[in-house]
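Work Package 3 (structural annotation) set out to generate three-dimensional models for the target panel prioritized at the project kickoff. During this period the team completed the workflow that converts sequence records into discrete structure tokens, so that structures can be stored uniformly alongside our sequence database. As a representative example, we reproduce one entry of 248 residues exactly as it appears in the project archive.
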Amino acid sequence: MSEEIVIETNKLTKRFGDFVATNEITFQVKKGEIFGFLGANGAGKTTAMRMLCGLSVPSSGKGKVAGFDVYKQTEKIKENIGYMSQKFSLYEDLTVMENIRFFGGIYGLSRKEIKAKMAQMLERIGLEGQKNKLVSDLPLGWKQKLAFSVAIFHNPQIVFLDEPTGGVDPMTRRQFWDQIYEASDSGITVFVTTHYMDEAEYCNRISMMVDGYIKALDTPANLKKHYHAESMDQVFYELARGAKRKGD
């Protein structure tokens, strides 16, 4: 992890009428960092991620992703990021190879680049013998591996992962995090939302959102120490309880 900042926000806010989905969120993410973005449903995680991906225009505040402005340079942002959702962002009725070719083309890679990178990728994730199989026929864990590999196929500066391990078993989740570590070691910044508190411990730093606000931001070890907690579940409970008391 370097000291280079690849994501930075200053009081970034999104309103929908009178409702404030994200309220003046301010943070920085370093190159190669695994940055966890945690919070309950409705806390503002998805809204924040959409602004950072150039899919939603902020109401106020400032933000840059990969050096590009979240207001004026959204297309440049999209060219420099990868994205993977809980549904894996794959086409089930296409083969493994067809999916890779399709997304490689979207990312602007030439046919020659796609062919060379595809062979390397399939060997790395152990799917050489499955390249002509429909994605719908793959086991869930393999779909997950493929979706992540496709999301970083064009070697983006940052990859955004929106609840990427939902619905898979603990062993498969742990194997998936090995892929995340490899991507981080190669210099790709990983911005991940998750509701699995044990996964928060795998991140370099985590931000915890409650009702649109960032209520805590630090390393997992420091947060547990600050809240005298043994687990991230306990940290989140203390944050949510504190927010509820203030709202009473």
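Residues 215-248 form one domain.
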